Structures are given as structure tokens and as C-alpha cells.
Amino acid sequence: MTFVRYLLVAAVIAYAGWLAWPFLAPFFEGAPLDVALERARGMIEAGGGLSSAALWVGAVLLYVIAAMMLSAGNPRAAIAYFLGFIADAVLRLAIDRGRTDPAQASIQADSYSGGELSQRSAEAVAPAGLPVDPTWLILGTLLLIGLIIVAVSRRRARRRVPGQLAS
């Protein structure tokens, strides 16, 4: 069970990194700090403003907190994960709401953060060739991971022999 827990930690951290990459990329490209901050601010403004950026950053932070709590064996990791999932779902569904044609499969290249998130999601599931909207596929996968986190992070009561000290 420990292996599954650490595998889940790696998966959650990898997803949080993938989710945060559009905002972090300008800082890793070697540009001066003021240029990187300007580009990150431009992405926030193009992606729907501060509310969308707050959801995005909140989801990433909650996923990272959930991963740290899960790696420590804290049973409250599922709560942090599902709060991050809710923020991520609201963000994805808000982006997806502006879509008019179901055949577009959530690809909106108009705004950087909204279009980038849905574009990257569509590219992630494109090799599978599934006829499913990537928004729902990714949300379903994230929900399944959350349910596994609930199962892994539950404390199990152990039976003690009379006279045995608690460990």
C-alpha cells in the first residue's frame, strides 16, 4: 500500500506541475525577472483575469499540499485533493462553457490560459483516439485518483492483543 501511496504522490505532483507549467515557463526560459513577470501577467489577463488565475493557482497549490499530506500519511490529504479537484473542475468547466461546437473537443486557442489548458488536455488524450471530450475524460480520471487517495489514506484499525502496548 505504501508503493501505491507514493505512486499517487508522484502522479499528483506531476499533474500539478503540468497544470502550472504555462505560468512557470516564462521564469525557466532564462529571461530577466521583470520580463518573465510581464509575460506571466499577460497570461493571466489573456486567460480571463484574476478570478481564473486564482482558481488555477489555488488548484495547483491544493494539489501540491494534498501530495505532501499524502506522502506523510495524513488522512486529510483527500480533503485537500478534492478541494483542488473542485477548483480545477470549475476552471475547466468555465473554459469549456464558452465552447460552441462539440467537435472542437474543448480546444479554444483564443486565450492563453484557457486555450492552453484545453489545448494541452486535448493533445494529451489525442494519441488514444478516444471519441470522448477531453474535459470529461480528465475530470473522470482526476475523480478516480481522488477516490484511490481516499482508499489509501484511510487509517485502518488494528486489533491488539490484550496487554500489548500501543505502537
> Spans with pLDDT under 50 lasting ≥5 residues?
100-114
Percent in strands: under 5%
Mean pLDDT: 77
Q: State Rg.
A: 19 Å
The helicity comes to over 70%
Order of helices and strands: HHHHHH
Strand runs, count: 0
Shape: elongated
Q: How far is the first residue's CA from the last residue's CA?
A: 19 Å
Number of DSSP helices? 6
The assigned structural class equals mainly alpha
Major beta sheet, specifics?
none
Helices, strands, pairings?
Layout: H1 2-28, H2 33-46, H3 50-71, H4 77-97, H5 112-125, H6 134-153
Helix pairs in contact: 1-2, 1-3, 1-6, 3-4, 4-5, 4-6, 5-6
Written overview of the protein:
With 167 residues, this protein is mainly alpha-helical. 71% of the residues lie in helices and 0% in strands. The longest helix is centred in the N-terminal third of the chain and has 27 residues. About 9% of the residues have low confidence.
